[in-house]
Amino acid sequence: MRTITRSALIVTVLVCLSAAAGLSLAAADQMANATSSPAPYVVHIKNFAFNPASLTVPVGATVVFKNEDSVAHTATAPGKNGFDSGNLDGGAEFKYVFSKAGKFDYVCNYHPTMKASIIVGAGSPAASPTPEPTPTQYVPSGY
Fold first, then answer.
1. Is residue 141 situated within a structural domain?
2. pLDDT (tens digit, 9 = 90+) per residue, 85-134?
3. Which of 85, 109, 115, 127 could cysteine-pair with 58, CB 3.0–4.6 Å?
4. Which residues form the domain of 105?
């Protein structure tokens, strides 16, 4: 019968624990990456209006334009860096990823009174850092 020294047993246990911890960390990292993508922002097209009429998003955000009317609309931001959904029949949607900062004013080509804007980048809710709490000093009463 073979005798395993105490130090060999400890090394074996440590190797096994390290391997298990590595697998757990890798699995946790994959889960974090899968869930860290923010949900897309949604612009509802309803009653011949874009809702919200103004939306602020961070660079890299996906915006989904959902036509909830029974008639066709577009979401069109003219210009070199603009976007165009093309025809969106009732119930259709269009997704666009905003990869550059700026203000994007857009309209419905069929109904030019329908206007809205998307502000991308600085000042957006997801891009603004959360302020650090200010440390306070506790001084008991009576001192």
1. no
2. 999 999 999 999 999 999 999 999 999 999 999 999 965 444 333 334 44
3. 127
4. 41-120
